[in-house]
Specification:
The chain is α/β, with parallel strands linked by helices and 348 residues long. The chain has 17 helices and five strands. The protein has a five-stranded parallel β-sheet with strand order 2-1-3-4-5, with helices on both faces. It is globular. The relative contact order is 0.09.
């Protein structure tokens, strides 16, 4: 185990103790419910921190700290600021995990603290009024937030029936709307329940578009697409799969939260040329790396090319190389070009 991996593992193993130490330093009350909530929040911070340690990539935690700054600005935490939380994390780690673990951790916290003063305390909207299909995107989101999935579905189906390419609906309606939903939750303007409703409704709408996606025209190139184990954010990789299908690839979508054994079995069963792996949460990056390592280690699957995507890889543009992938697709729209480069005319 490398020193960075050992330090990350130590932080995770000490997470309950560190979380309690942070709550104590921030003078969180002793009542069970708020104290438990504070400890859970601190454990969440530590999961992000551990991934930044493991990859040697400060940007993963710096971005998270900046995200927290926006969230705290809209919902102030009693007696806490992002700065005070990071300082408490720093103190707890130096106290509970001195030596190499603190040596690998404290510089990341210091970098995040240094970046906070110049980072914004709000987040701009993802809905650009000048973008293609801007009016449709606005109407779609409004109907979702009004909990009217039937009208949202009717709008999209009518748009597709009127000749709008499915690619444009995915890229200019679904993608910005779902990002906007995430932003609204970050700003405490919608609840977790509303966020989940919007996601579930969009999955339903995408299902209604299946006749436009599966035309029956495929090539000899095969792709298996999935989210790593524990990852439940599947809409991005599902959009990639649909667009690849429309581009002529023979696709096999495995869904969310797929374990490594199942992924290896699918690659072999479908004789895949390409594996598309997605992770949205930063603390799942190590699972991407472990899955790719397992693919490379198996004689049955090592010939497959691997393309990754998801939020962590946007935060850190070189992260795909760190986890051992062959390529990175920043969004569903560019995934086809990346896939065509990796598998230009058939099996690599």
């Amino acid at each position: 185990m490398s020193p960075l991996h050992a330090a990350a593992q130590a932080v995770l193993e000490l997470s309950p103790q560190l979380a309690r130490a942070v709550s104590h330093r921030l003078n969180v009350g002793s009542a069970a419910t708020p104290r438990r909530a504070a400890d859970d929040d601190n454990a969440h911070h530590l999961a992000y921190l551990a991934e930044a340690i493991r990859t040697g990539d400060d940007a993963l935690f710096v971005n998270y700290a900046q995200w927290l700054k926006v969230r705290y600005a809209t919902k102030p935490q009693t007696g806490r600021s992002v700065e005070s939380v990071l300082e408490a994390l720093r103190h707890a780690i130096m106290e509970c995990a001195p030596g190499p673990t603190a040596g690998a951790t404290v510089p990341i916290l210091d970098t995040a603290l240094a970046a906070l003063p110049s980072s914004p305390d709000t987040a701009p909207s993802y809905l650009d009024p000048d973008a293609p299909y801007a009016a449709t995107a606005r109407q779609y989101l409004d109907r979702l937030l009004a909990a009217d999935r039937n009208k949202a579905c009717d709008l999209v189906v009518r748009t597709a029936g009127g000749g709008a390419p499915i690619r444009d609906i995915y890229v200019h309606v679904f993608q910005p709307c779902l990002r906007e939903v995430g932003r609204l939750w970050q700003l405490n303007k919608i609840s977790v329940a509303q966020e989940h409703y919007c996601t579930a409704a969009t999955q339903l709408v995408m299902a209604q578009l299946s006749p436009y996606v599966f035309s029956g025209v495929t090539s000899d190139r095969r792709m298996v697409a999935t989210c790593v184990g524990g990852e439940l954010h599947e809409l991005g990789i599902r959009m990639v799969t649909d667009l690849m299908e429309m581009a002529g690839w023979d696709t096999y979508y495995l869904g969310a939260n797929m374990n490594t054994e199942g992924i290896l079995a699918a690659i072999e069963e479908y004789d895949a040329d390409l594996l598309a792996l997605s992770a949205t949460m930063v603390y799942h990056v190590h699972l991407v790396e472990e899955t790719i390592a397992a693919v490379r280690d198996s004689e049955r699957t090592r010939g497959v090319r691997v393309m990754v995507g998801g939020f962590p890889f946007l935060v850190s543009p070189d992260l795909w190389r760190t986890v051992g992938a062959d390529g990175f697709a920043p969004d569903p729209d560019t995934a086809i070009a990346v896939a065509d480069q990796l598998v230009p005319g058939g099996k690599p």
